[in-house]
Amino acid sequence: MADAERSLRAMVEHWLAPDPSGRVRVKRFSHRRTAQARYVCVETVRTGQLVEMFFFRHGDGTWHVFPPPRERPAMRVAGQYAYL
Asked: Closest by alpha carbon to 15, among 45, 41, 46, 53?
């Protein structure tokens, strides 16, 4: 159930609350191979105004309105990780 609550559809409905008679359109999207980061820009019309919002896919497969944290370089020292 938690995955369904963080699906792209659920996030669009939560944040944009599109008019049932209106349309929601994916305006642009990206998939960067290096970081496996994805984003989707969605637009709809609410109260006569165009509204756009970006959604970012995180490593666990859920979608959020903020980008996932960057992976920082790390090295192993004496059995523990030391972050740079």
From this structure: 53
Cβ-count burial 59-76 (b if 16+ within 10 Å, e if not): eeebbeeeebeeeeeeee
| 1 confidence band (pLDDT: 50, 70, 90) | very low
Q: What is the DSSP letter of 40?
A: E
Give one word for 11, left, alpha or beta, with left for phi > 0 and alpha for psi -120 to 50.
alpha
Instruction: Give the pLDDT score at 46.
Output: 79
Please give the structure tokens belonging to residue 50: 């165009």
What are 28-71's pLDDT values in tens digits? Answer: 888 766 556 688 999 988 777 888 899 988 888 888 888 888 77
Domain boundaries, the chain: 2-83
- pTM greater than the 0.85 cutoff: no
Structure tokens at 82: 């030391």
